[in-house]
Amino acid sequence: MARAFLYGRHSTVHQQMTENAQRHHCLAYYEAYLRPEGIGLAEPGWFYDQAESGGLPFSERTHGRVVLASIQPTDWLVFADWTRAFRDNLDSEITMRQLLNRQVNVHCTQFPISQARAVGRYMQRVVAATSQFERELASERVLEVNRQKKRDGVPFSKGVPMGWKAVRRTYNGKTTRYYHVDDDERTLCDLVAAKRSSG
């Protein structure tokens, strides 16, 4: 009997695709379309990579490896979002080709076009390329902001350097951390440095 493997990967609470949202979409699809066809649910039912890095390919994640090792021809792999399933274009292409060659049915609830058809594979590549483009743009923006902070002499690491203090401000539910010069600490640092240099 064919089985359905429902897969998800960790997403931060600030993103739309939390674990609960991913599981809801996958289970809803399974209950509506697969269970009525007599397709069972593969144990344990929900394969979720809790804290796997998005930088890891599907085949190197804990539950991704389990899925690839266990899934058989005519089984189903169901996930809610391409960005949760695959690392990038290359990972998507390699994993999808491997699954389709094994005659595995693949379905993304976000993108309901069969990957067994040419138009489905084409659209999957477009969606994967767009997702990768958005991730790379976000990375470039972070790097540029950090470069500008470095030029301005403002700290940008997670820690708080000596001579600075971090102040958190919340606006519209979003908390941002700002750095301000800590004159008292800088005076103390100068005093310690002077005593050290004088022996």
Outline the structure in words:
The protein is of the alpha/beta class. Helix content is 46%, strand content 21%. It has helices at 19-34, 62-70, 82-85, 89-101, 118-152, 183-197, and strands at 3-9, 40-49, 76-79, 105-108, 164-171, 174-181. It has a four-stranded parallel sheet with strand order 2-1-3-4, with helices on both faces. Strands 5-6 form a two-stranded antiparallel sheet. It starts with a strand and ends with a helix. The mean pLDDT is 82.
Straight-line N-to-C gap:
80 Å
Element order, helices and strands?
EHEHEHHEHEEH
Note poorly predicted spans.
Answer: none
**Average pLDDT level:** 82
Classification by helices and strands = alpha/beta
Beta strands, count = 6
In short:
The chain is α/β, with parallel strands linked by helices and 199 residues long. It is built from six helices and six strands.
